[in-house]
Amino acid sequence: MLKKIPADYFDSSKGTLKLLWEEEWRALGITQSLGWEHYEVHEPEPHILLFK
C-alpha cells in the first residue's frame, strides 16, 4: 500500500521525516497494538519507520 505522507510530517531543516506522534502514524494507516513509539528515522532509507 502506498500513501502520500503530508508535507508537514517532514523536518524542513533536514528534509527528512520528523518523529511522528501516535495519532499521526495511525492516520497513515499503520496499525499496531497500543504503546508503540516512533523513535527514529533511518536517514539512508527514510521510508523505514523505527518503533519501540
- Beta-strand residue percentage: 15-25%
Shape: globular
Poorly predicted tracts of residues: none
Summed up, the helix count is 1
Account of the protein in words:
The protein has one helix at residues 22-27; strands at residues 10-11, 16-17, 38-41, 49-51. With 52 residues, the chain is of the alpha+beta class. The protein has a single domain, classed as Cyclin-Dependent Kinase Subunit Type 2 (2-Layer Sandwich), CATH 3.30.170.10. It starts with 9 loop residues before the first strand and ends with a strand. The longest helix has 6 residues, at 22-27. The strands form 2 sheets. A two-stranded antiparallel ribbon has the order 1-2. A two-stranded antiparallel ribbon has the order 3-4. The chain is built from 1 helix and 4 strands; from the N terminus they run E-E-H-E-E.
